[in-house]
Amino acid sequence: MKTLLVKEVRRFMRVPGQTVLSPLISTSLYFLVFGYSLSGRGAHEVEGVPYLSFIVPGLVFLGLANNSFLNSSSSLFINKIQGTIVDLLVVPLGPLELLAGFIGGAMVRGLMVGLLTWAVATLFTGFHLAHVPATLLFLLLSSYTFSVLGVLAAVWAEKFEQVNFFPTFVMLPLTFLGGVFYSVRELPTPWNHVSLFNPIVYMVEGLRYGMLGSSGFSPLWGGAILLGVALVATGLAWTALRSGYKLKA
Question: What confidence tens digit (pLDDT) does each residue in 124-169 have?
Fold first, then answer.
């Protein structure tokens, strides 16, 4: 398992410009463009928090979730289409050890991008960390959850475009409509009510509570949703790896 984990980390560290710096620059540009342009339009504070500081947790979550998902999904899918996944299935590694290897590598990349995004943001907003345990919990649980979802997407997909279906048509719209750049409680009716069905809202607000000490919803909602998704996704991924579903030719 340790060998697989080290292999996964080395895989994305061979191309740091593509796997770490590129998403870091993209997320930082969101911060600079949206933050400064909206601040200049009068959005100086949201729920009592300066707007630039308000969007930092959402952008950290955005970089962390996307890169955790992309790392595990791309790595497992490439092994699958090249046929090398069979080599991993026959070695003396159980499904939980295989999961730990792929998920561990994806979490390292997701956390690296998320923490670097946070570090860049502190240059403009200063350092804010209201609740250390809550922040660590949401960072770790978010990266784990989206890493497992990436494994599931890779198992299900048969083409590259299917791997990109979930991040493009599910994660991206839910994240951008999930309160990263605004407070959903300040939306006009009925959109403020519709947004409550978006689970990303509670995940972003949970991280916002940990980092800023301010949140529109109880962080328990975000933690419960992340934990529930993580448990279900882990069970499905373990079953797929154990049976070799769509992995064995």
Answer: 888 889 999 999 999 999 999 999 999 999 999 988 888 888 888 8
Q: How far is CA 41 from the centre of its chain?
A: 29
Estimate to the nearest angstrom the gap between the alpha carbon of 17 and the chain centroid. 19
Task: Provide the whole-model pTM.
Answer: 0.88
* Run of H or E residues at 83: none
Residue 73: left (phi > 0), alpha (psi -120 to 50), or beta?
A: alpha
- Residue linked to tokens 């697989």: 4
Q: Write the pLDDT tens digit of every residue in 36-90.
A: 776 665 557 888 888 888 999 999 999 999 999 999 999 999 888 888 877 777 7
What lies within 8 Å, CB to CB, of 242 at 6+ separation is 95
Q: What tokens appear for 172 in the block? A: 């991206």
Q: Please list the alpha-helical segments (H only) found in the chain.
A: 2-13, 16, 22-39, 51-82, 85-90, 95-125, 132-156, 160-163, 165-166, 172-176, 191-194, 199-212, 219-243
| 160 Cβ contact list (under 8 Å, min separation 6) | 77
| pLDDT tens per residue, range 162-188 | 888 888 888 888 888 888 888 888 888
